[in-house]
Amino acid sequence: MLLLALLPDSVLVGIYGGALVKRAVALAGGKKYKITAKGGRLIVNGVKRRKLTLKSARLLEPVKGDYPGLLIFLPKGNAFRIINKLPREEYVAHVIASEMGDAPLEALKAQAVLARTFLMRWGKRHGIFHACDRDHCQRYEGRKRTKAIHRRAARETKGLVLTYQGKPVEVLYHASCGGWVCEPRYVWKGGKSLPYFWTGEDEDCFEDDNAHYTWKVFAPLKTCPRVKRIPGSLRVYAMFLGGDTLYAYEIRRRFGLPSTVFAYWCTQTGVIFIGTGRGHGVGLCQRGAILKAKKGWDYRKILKFYYRGTTVRKVGR
Ligand SMILES: [Zn+2]
Ligand SMILES: [Zn+2]
User: Fold this and answer.
1) Cα–ligand 1 centroid distance for 17 (angstroms)
2) Considering the entire predicted model, what is its pTM?
3) N or C: which end of the chain has fewer CB within 10 A?
4) What SS3 state is found at 245?
């Protein structure tokens, strides 16, 4: 019963990362609204107001978007926040469209279950709204990319979340593992190794030779680094450079590498990294999920592959 209370029926999304903005322009019901704020009040088309709520609005500034449900403008000082309130399942459909785009139905359904699980696990991190519209939470761009298949994926998994021993799992996913998934401890210093994450080969991605997932980066370095790979894996988790030890997330940030599955060569002018995959490699691999769905796997089998020992449970209406 406790779980039920934690999955909201309608979702509040902080647009523009949930940050305070100074100016917005919106269209609703054939009318244009120019919005600013002063001293804790909104100024809408030149008129002072406490609050403004628009239905099925299009936002032209500060971000372009077509938003279902309500757009709520909340003033604070000389700025305001824009919150989009919409039914949970509609939010899920738009999130999976923004996160995965065109993909097979069963892969989208796996992402839909994770989108809801995220709401349960992290739905309170922003306080006054459930999630922001950025990668910090889950990417949400309103109706921009949503097609019938995204709505169907949400509908066919309605109210379902992924749990381990009765609790929602930690929601982590990435674009492509490059053939090797791993536990959080190989990515983040002090990363908790939760029992459902594992380290090893994602065969479908290993055999996948889609050029989009291979990359090359040059770094002008004077010394040639040494690396440590996860035993039995091509994924690098530590790099020794001069006197420094860099951890996986630091390696990617320092050199702008899409992933830590790479080979490298030292030349006189620097280091050439050639790698595969995109993202940290923990949890669901979106590329792998797509390849598995194409092979005929359903979303439950896909989720259980990336999240071992977990159960899909219905907790919401
Ligand atoms: Zn956020
Ligand atoms: Zn993969």
Assistant:
1) 7
2) 0.93
3) N
4) strand
**Interval 76-103 mean pLDDT:** 97
Cα-to-centroid distance, 132 and ligand 1 (Å): 4
| Res 265: pLDDT | 96
Nearest ligand to the CA of 125 is 1
Question: How far does residue 205's CA lie from ligand 2's centre (Å)?
Answer: 5
Residue 169 per-residue DSSP state: P
What pLDDT, on a 0 to 100 scale, did the predictor assign at position 7? 87
Q: Where does 180-262 have alpha helices with state H?
A: 203-207, 248-255
Q: Which residues make up the environment of ion ligand 2, defined by Cβ < 5 Å?
A: 177, 202, 205, 285, 288
Residue 234 C-alpha to ligand 2 middle, in angstroms? 13
- For residue 130, report the distance from its CA to the centre of ligand 2, in Å: 29
Q: Which two tokens stand for residue 46?
A: 């030149």
Phi then psi for 171, rounded to 5 degrees? -90, 105
Q: How far apart are CA 11 and CA 8, in angstroms?
A: 6
* Exposed e or buried b per residue across 88-118, where buried means at least 16 C-beta atoms within 10 angstroms of its C-beta: bbbbbbbbbbbbbeebbebbbbbbbbbbbbb
42 Cα–ligand 2 center, Å: 47
Q: How far, in Å, is the centroid of ligand 1 from the Cα of 131?
A: 5
**CA distance linking residue 258 with residue 12, whole number of Å:** 31
Domain-wise residue ranges, the chain: 8-87, 89-182+282-314, 185-276
| CB-based contacts of 101-106 (< 8 A; 24+ apart in sequence) | 101/145, 102/147, 102/149, 103/286, 103/289, 103/290, 103/293, 104/290, 104/293, 104/294, 105/149, 105/152, 105/153, 105/156, 105/293, 106/292, 106/293, 106/297, 106/298, 106/299, 106/302
The string of pLDDT tens digits covering residues 244-278 is: 999 999 999 999 999 999 999 999 999 999 999 99
Indicate the pLDDT class of residue 192, thresholds 50, 70 and 90: confident
Tell how far the Cα of 204 is from the centroid of ligand 1, in angstroms.
Answer: 31
